[in-house]
Amino acid sequence: xxxxxxxxxxxxxxxxxxxxxxxxxxxxxxxxxxxxxxxxxxxxxxxxxxxxxxxxxxxxxxxxxxxxxxxxxxxxxxxxxxxxxxxxxxxxxxxxxxxxxxxxxxxxxxxxxxxxxxxxxxxxxxxxxxxxxxxxxxxxxxxxxxxxxxxxxxxxxxxxxxxxxxxxxxxxxxxxxxxxxxxxxxxxxxxxxxxxxxxxxxxxxxxxxxxxxxxxxxxxxxxxxxxxxxxxxxxxxxxxxxxxxxxxxxxxxxxxxxxxxxxxxx
Length: 266
Ligand code: NAD
Fold this sequence. Notes:
seven-stranded parallel sheet, binds nicotinamide-adenine-dinucleotide, 44% helix, Rossmann fold
């Protein structure tokens, strides 16, 4: 099924993990895909090749280097995107970073960097996409990669939690501001997904078992399971959905501690 046939899509941080899976899935669905990367040129090229191989009919895949937190680089990236594809239909704000640290020991520079990539980046990219959407006059779609930590606090990851909480309001505010211009803005909030950001537990059997014990469905998700939600939200099957976050988290947001009725003495 090519639900995104001919759509021009920019995906940030697509040299690995979920962004890579989104790029491959979107190419399979017929989209022209620009794979943004920051440092992982090899990963971006790998994404491009896999996206090319996944494609059913024609479509183009290119790579674009830029730090999403840097205004000049973001503007230049959009200029290049438009020069290559002529117009933009979908932006996926996927790039994100995290770093564990007790909040009372956190360096201000680390706080700024995480907010810079995770929140300023989506703002800058959304602003540029919106400018083109409005100029083109045929609407558009912005999708944000949030997290269950949009609503679940994450001690020792203060700036990450703040960034994802802020992303909910970025999603909802832009959705409301541009709904009457045919522009939809939504988010996907993954739970624990097997990607490089989670190397701390992926290859450690004991640590992974702890992670799995907290997930109602008993396993982490895959990048492909998240990419499919992005594809749905980008497609014409979701034309009446805006301002929403879809939680794809194996039940992590269902208060797993209440699997047993411990509070009622049962
Ligand atoms: P990942 O580390 O593979 O992906 C993050 C990507 O962002 C990398 O490709 C990295 O190069 C890129 N990036 C970092 N700084 C950048 C910058 N300044 N400019 C452009 N790109 C930059 O991990 P992932 O799990 O695929 O993460 C993707 C998104 O998914 C993130 O926003 C993350 O918060 C979110 N997420 C992941 C999980 C999970 O369990 N894996 C859960 C919830 C949310």
